[in-house]
What we know:
The complex is a heterodimer of chains A (about 325) and B (about 325). Chain A has about 325 residues and is mainly α.
Amino acid sequence: MLKYILKRLTIMGVTLWIIITLTFVLMVSVPGSPFNDQDRNTNDIVQENLERHYNLDKPYIIQYFLYLKSIITFDFGPSIKQSNHTVNDLLSRGFPISFELGMVSIVIAVISGVILGIFAALKHNGIIDYAAMTIAVLGISIPNFVLATLLIQKFAVDSNMLPTARWESVAHMILPIIALATGPMAIIARLTRSTMLEVLTQDYIKMARAKGLSPWKIIVKHALKNALMPVVTIMGTLLAGILTGTFVIEKIFAIPGMGRYFIESINHRDYPVIMGTTVFYSAFLICMLFLVDIAYGLLDPRIKIHKHDGDRP
Amino acid sequence: MNILEVNHLHVSFSTYGGTVEAVRGINLQLEKGETLAIVGESGCGKSVTANAIMRLIPQPPGRITDGSILFKGQNLVDQSERTMRHIRGRDISMIFQDPMTALNPTLTIGTQLMEGLKQHKAVSKEEARQKALDMLRLVGIPNPKERLTQYPHQFSGGMRQRVVIAMALICEPEILIADEPTTALDVTIQAQIIELFERIQRETGVAIILITHDLGVVAKVADRIAVMYAGQIIEKGTKRDIFYHAEHPYTLGLLKSVPRLDIKEARLTPIDGTPPDLFSPPKGCSFAPRCPYAMEVCHEVPPIQTELEQNHHVYCWLQDKRGKALMAQTATKK
Ligand SMILES: Nc1ncnc2c1ncn2[C@@H]1O[C@H](COP(=O)(O)OP(=O)(O)OP(=O)(O)O)[C@@H](O)[C@H]1O
Ligand SMILES: [Mg+2]
């Protein structure tokens, strides 16, 4: 187990390094600089001084190592655009909000998706099944930004039931979370339904019935765990989807999360912020994927993450 | 006294192609502590019969359309699902063909063994564990303590079937229905499992319905045999009756189609033709189209039961008094 985790951690480190390098290459290859704002009218000398201050006059290779150093020490320095804030400030301010939005959405997506999927499977070809799957298809095919706009129009503008934007109370959270969670929920519901239908035809389910177990016990104890396996497998992809989804949703609902800084930093070529947010997002996602794999191993005893391989016959 | 009596049981399935009459009026009796073997070729309705007794026919598409299943006088056909849940696993247990898929891969053997017991009996955790250990010992699994916490994938096929048998017997049921329990295993393991059945029956006195198409297995363990063909029982009797005094042409064909060590025969004789289409079963005897001795009446009228000896019954016009007379007539004419 320990060996496995160490191996995984090494791979995660390498992955992160590749992402950092790619981000750096992309960053310097995109034309423009933080300081050639047309309307600021800075003269050449000021510009040069600024560039020297932020080490932008150094050769790329030196800059690259400076970035690596800043990442290892987890000190990205001040933002170029908002020089009274360090990148760490922005991260620690934005991350909790983005995390809340993302996590609540994924939890809601998983719970409601699984429940919807189970009911659809149990009432296979019944009204509930068709209704659930219609919702699911809609959920998958409507992009979250369209859904967000529709929700705002319906519930905030037309009926004034919920606030249009910002992140202040529970009421503010409802629409962005629905917008963000619907897509993943639909995917999970469809997947749960199909795997559940398959699992219910398995011999061990018949065996459980032959033991005299109640239908409810059979579903919870025998079917669900097996049916959730594929759901756990796609959790990684869904998490990545939710993460990019937060950029869009935060923008639409004016939520002061990390996504906003990320997008602004790219528009403004705010190099330290780009680097900081990218590294942070990547590291976060990589850790989540790691957790998903661990969870998968715990759920399915056939997947061994122990050192020795048991006594397979 | 009969612990189980199946009378005139009919089961059909509605499919897109029409209604399949999988079981068509079978009668079976099972006595306390005996082994009844049901034999017949693939698709003749053996599993459907077994599932019907457990009331585990998937519904829809399946339905018990007629008949009764009397377990100690109680008609299982009329029982509610709730009552059936109390009977399943506690009074009547079932074992399926493939031990590789009959165990849940995500639960330990211990959990799966004990859940049936906990469902039916008020036992403490420790009592349940103890009983599970006893059962594993009974079915011959070494190191039961360690095995209890292991998962199915850590067991070989034969060991899994032993676990399944332990699972089925843990509540000390009175009837064990084993649907081809050895078909998926290799030959040496088959023999071990069959011996296990014999031993278990000696030790627990459970009555066993053994479904198989392996006549070798039948010869070894069965007390009585029912031969099924196309959803009907065509001959039934004691093991002796069937192996030495079989009268139905199909049973004879079946016996001729297995290799024997005691008689030197150049070749096995397969039964020509294929079983009838159960969407529209023949009007008369369902074996008539393949029967080398079929008479006109066989194609028109379903045969009635003829008692050859006590408890040796055959459904065949050839064995009917009138049929016999007719045969004698034609024989003398020639
Ligand atoms: N769920 C079902 N839907 C439709 N038809 C079914 C269903 N289950 C069984 N049947 C039909 O019932 C008939 C008997 O099937 P059954 O499984 O009892 O055969 P069997 O004697 O057990 O054969 P085998 O030796 O292959 O196990 C088959 O012709 C099959 O087509
Ligand atoms: Mg079968």
